Amino acid sequence: MRVVIAEDSVLLREGVQRLLADEGIETVAAVENGDALLDAVVEHKPDLCVVDVRMPPTFTDEGLRAAIEARRRSPGLPVLVLSQYVEERYAVELLAGGASGVGYLLKERVADVKEFVDAVRRVADGGTSIDHEVITQLMVRSKKSPVDSLTPREREVLGLMAQGLSNTAIAATLVVSDGAVEKHVGNIFAKLGLEPSNSEHRRVRAVLAYLDS
């Protein structure tokens, strides 16, 4: 796997690069701003971009906007966003803009090496890995959402789906049967107006459907 890292903090940039190297993942470019990220994507055509949200010159949302632009220029480009905060406006645009190969993790997750590496591999493979706290905050901030029609258990299942868990993994986490999870997933699809399907696209669209409202 070939990765481009965009992070303005030298320590974190080198730390992530070393962590990935320990897992046999090659960093083909490590840059510190959004423009350099776009250039690196064109030059290296990476399998994944790991992008910080706040980078020069204003340290607000440059990284997230660059990630969105990178995916616009290279449709399907897997992007894993790291942030200390949930940047609502552009997070919604990034997540709703494509149903595969997208991740949004809070930086504290990098401390859990296994969890972080699992997220890297999942997103690079076209899956999704969205921090539960990110989903929670976006749900709270959304005034009107089709998610409002879900039961507490269905919301819990949806949150685990957002983290990229399979039905079997969700069942193990919630200590329920696979059949119970399949029923909840079917109800979620129905309430959100999505045709039931086990494909990654439909699962992620279920997670992100409320973002379009």
Which SSEs are present, and which pair or pack?
Layout: E1 2-6, H1 10-22, E2 26-31, H2 34-44, E3 48-52, H3 62-73, E4 79-83, H4 88-96, E5 102-106, H5 113-124, E6 128-130, H6 132-141, H7 152-162, H8 167-174, H9 178-191, H10 200-208
Parallel strand pairs: 1-2, 1-3, 3-4, 4-5, 5-6
Helix pairs in contact: 2-3, 3-4, 7-9, 7-10, 8-9
What overall form do the CA principal axes indicate? globular
From the alpha-carbon coordinates, what is the Rg to the nearest angstrom?
A: 17 Å
End-to-end Cα distance, whole Å, is 36 Å
- SS class: alpha/beta
Strand content: 5-15%
Instruction: Count every beta strand, where a strand is a DSSP E run of 2 or more residues.
Output: 6
Architecture overview:
Residues 2-122 form the Response regulatory domain. The modification 4-aspartylphosphate is found at residue 52. Pfam families: GerE, Response_reg. Residues 143-213 form the HTH luxR-type domain. This is LuxR family two component transcriptional regulator. The chain has a six-stranded parallel sheet with strand order 2-1-3-4-5-6, with helices on both faces. The mean pLDDT is 83. The protein has ten helices and six strands. By secondary structure, it is of the alpha/beta class. 51% of the residues lie in helices and 14% in strands. Helix 2 (34-44) packs parallel to helix 3 (62-73), helix 7 crosses helix 9 (178-191) and helix 8 packs across helix 9. The radius of gyration is 17 Å and the shape is globular. The chain has helices spanning 10-22, 34-44, 62-73, 88-96, 113-124, 132-141, 152-162, 167-174, 178-191, 200-208; strands at 2-6, 26-31, 48-52, 79-83, 102-106, 128-130. The longest helix has 14 residues, at 178-191. Strand 3 (48-52), helix 3 (62-73) and strand 4 form a beta-alpha-beta unit.
